[in-house]
Amino acid sequence: MNRYRGKELFPYLRHVAGRGTFVAAFRAGWEAVARRRGSPCAPPWMAFPPKEADVTVSASGVQAAIWGPLWPIHAGVPLPEPLSVPLATKNHDLGDRDLWRTEFEDIEDTFSLHRFGWVPVCLGRHGTIPLGMVLWQRVVQWIREVTPSQFPSAWETYSACERIVHWSQLYAWLRRAAGRGLPEEEAFVESLLLHGEYVLSHLEFYGEDDSSKTNNHLINNGRALYVLGAFLNVPRYLDTGRRLLADGMRRSFTQAGFLREGSSHYHILLVSRYLDVLEVARNIRDEAFVEELGPFLDRSMAAARFFLPEKEGVFPLIGDVSPDFDPEWTLRAVEDAARRLLGAGGGLYGNVASEGKGVTDRLRDGWCRYDDPNYRVYWHVQPGGAIPPYSHAHHDTGSFELSVERHPLLVDTGRVSYVADAAGLYGRSAAAHNGVLVDGREPFVSHWLNGGRFLMSDYGRTEVRTWWENASSRPAFVVEHQGFSRLRGIGKYRRRFLLDKDEIVLEDRYEGRGRHVLETFFHAAPSVGVAVEGNALSFREKGTRRNLELALDAGNLAGLSLMRGEWEGGRPMGWFSPRYGRNVPTTTVRFRHKAVFPFTNRFVLRLG
Known about the structure:
With 608 residues, the protein is α+β, with helices and mostly antiparallel strands. 34% of the residues lie in helices and 23% in strands.
């Protein structure tokens, strides 16, 4: 039991016992856990089309033209030696004799190796025919050596789906580049058919409601089956993939086109999945599906531009960063695909002037941005506060990201891994964001962070309210919730952002009674220097003309800590994760107060 989960059990027991419902609550919680366990399965609404009798596809029947010229051919470029490919957290030599038997410390590296996501990365960076043939040899080797019974981690459904897409892309690129057939084509086609049947029988569906862990993997199941159906001309795969993708547009995205999972990077990644599908649908002349995809991609690309209102801006890393591809690669891939498929005006980068300065309110979808001539602020607000099991969000409600002159100053620190250790759990905590803890406790209870699924929804979830005051001039943004009220003596919490020309005033209001310990965190970007100047802190980014002064306008300060690349009580402090698997030192500022509730803390962020 980790340091977060162990602290949440007793408040929960006190909560249910105080309502006289302990036995009923425990029984209901146990039954809920039992219902949500189990293997991936098909959605109950999914009626499969009849299975084709003895489906056989030869290499001559492969429709390689479903993919366009994905990457240029770099003639005359020498083959990299040694050939090292990027996995989730490290590079790995493809010449390893026991390549497919390699077990990594982080399971995401094992997944990455078997998902072949390094194929588009290698070919996109320096694609030559010799390099393509080396990668093809590894595909053939994998087909010969990796069976479901001996390598179960390689055959989890998501990995099988990624192989389908990346293998078909490699095959199409090589056939176009080399202009001839490839070795072991029949074995390749046979393996793809095996993959298709495996995915069909292991769809990653775990339930319909928000308490299930059905997430974007079901979309990826649909993408793989649609690509495979087009590649091998198997209508059954095409039809199933089409319906799963259509369901994903409704289930996983808001009406405005935002991914519901609370992650800016995952939103971009999922848009790239649908762009893949649009390219295939156009090339096989699936006109009805192209027409269905069009409005959805218009909305989801518009949502993506919320994070990048101009090309020179910095993409905010809010929520999890996917181990599949790093953010820089994902952004470049989406921009290239969007311009190729949607036209020059359909690219990723928007124009901030088109929306004007001031408030860009997408709070119905969980997001908000404020643009001042001198700075920019991003907020993510998780409905209900708690992180749903399907989500890639963090405890960032009430937190914010701040940039000055398009340089990040205050940031979310990110999440370095999905491993359930101190570093992986810290990334989801409010302590890893520009937020607060009360008596060392999180503002909400979320499965996998500080609570289990037996913690009932009426305990773990709370109402989160947001509103704007005076949105036309000197606006104030307010976030209010009762997440801390599960703890004795604590009531409503409200954070108010007063946004002025050269300063932002943060007011934290705590309702309740008794004496409590408050921790308020501010995290600088790695390139920002932080210094104590009198009773204030100075944040300075080398590339800007402005610095940020952070002053505390409240009493009862019990301590001020500046931490950089440290570990405190088994918890990392002063680290930033720009991508999955990588941590770099940064400066974390922590204000510690001993306060009697009700209490108001006031911080002034002033541009110097």
